Amino acid sequence: MAKIGFIGLGNMGAPMAANLAKAGHAVIGFDLSPAALEAARAKGVAIAATAAEAVADAEIVVTMLPSGKHVMAVTPELFAAAQPGTLFIDSSTIDVASARAFHDAAVAAGHASLDAPVSGGVGGAEAATLTFMCGGAAAAFATAEPILAAMGKKIVHCGEAGAGQAAKICNNMILGISMIGVCEAFVLAEKLGLSHQALYDVASTSSGQCWSLTTYCPVPGPVPASPANRDYRPGFSAALMLKDLKLSQEAAEQAGAPTALGAAATALYAAFEADGHAGKDFSGIIEWVRTRT
Ligand code: NAD
């Protein structure tokens, strides 16, 4: 069992740290938010007084922070406080350039590193069924894999530094585009007098089939567990979808990749957020699509 420091005990980090503790690891967490600390403590996570204290004795450090700028701000202190040779796993969703800078800084400080963003949301974090997409050296991945297995069920080594973040933003660009496509199809069906159930029954077993339709159906009824059945409470908020789409477009611009539909999805989620819907589930964009004529 490993000694693990866990930095960032928010909606995702707290249940992930709790699952590591449940698996028998010695976990010490830290967060800047007193409310997050209390919530994590209630889930059985030991709490440090500072970030430096959480990592001082750790063999492995997991960070689960909002964005690249948070990761870049806190890691110099963590790298300095940790024992040489500590493995740093960043599971935040951040831009590929920051992920690569995180790896370079970890190596320069004498540590090992892995970018390991996740898919599966808060439900997956609680149930320990997350998918981890990992980028970094084979040795770092080999050390991390059994640790990540306490928090997830699918762990993929995608390639070198930054490859995990690359996989994450490509996946979520598909998701943003496909959700808007499914929403537009339901709104067109409404205008054509076709019932939601009829479109679902056909498309879910035809070539239009996709996750946004069959797992996360944006209209109430056909998929009872989807957020559409609870007034679009997230789930996965529109704000987080927009964040990931912006990361995809930033990366596409830097890499010179043509992403016309990715750009269109980003613009539509930006408009949805600007109209006050950032906190809604991202499938709630169907209500907004309906109002465009
Ligand atoms: P969150 O805002 O709930 O948690 C982030 C936590 O980091 C907060 O509690 C904040 O206080 C803490 N924090 C910020 N700066 C810190 C610092 N310097 N030291 C210590 N703590 C600090 O966010 P979340 O929903 O847990 O998401 C975390 C990451 O996971 C994000 O990058 C997000 O994009 C990604 N993600 C989220 C979901 C989801 O469904 N929520 C799904 C997949 C990936």
TrEMBL record:
Residues 162-288 form the 3-hydroxyisobutyrate dehydrogenase-like NAD-binding domain. It comes from the Bacteria. It catalyses: 3-hydroxy-2-methylpropanoate + NAD(+) = 2-methyl-3-oxopropanoate + NADH + H(+). Its EC number is 1.1.1.31. InterPro entries: 3-OH-isobutyrate_DH-rel_CS, 6-PGluconate_DH-like_C_sf, 6PGD_dom2, 6PGDH_NADP-bd, HIBADH, HIBADH-like_NADP-bd, HIBADH-related, NAD(P)-bd_dom_sf. Keywords: Branched-chain amino acid catabolism, NAD, Oxidoreductase. The active site is at 168. Pathway: Amino-acid degradation; L-valine degradation. GO terms for molecular function: 3-hydroxyisobutyrate dehydrogenase activity; NAD binding; NADP binding. GO terms for biological process: L-valine catabolic process. Residues 3-159 form the 6-phosphogluconate dehydrogenase NADP-binding domain. Belongs to the HIBADH-related family. This is 3-hydroxyisobutyrate dehydrogenase. The lineage of its organism: Bacteria, Pseudomonadati, Pseudomonadota, Alphaproteobacteria, Hyphomicrobiales.
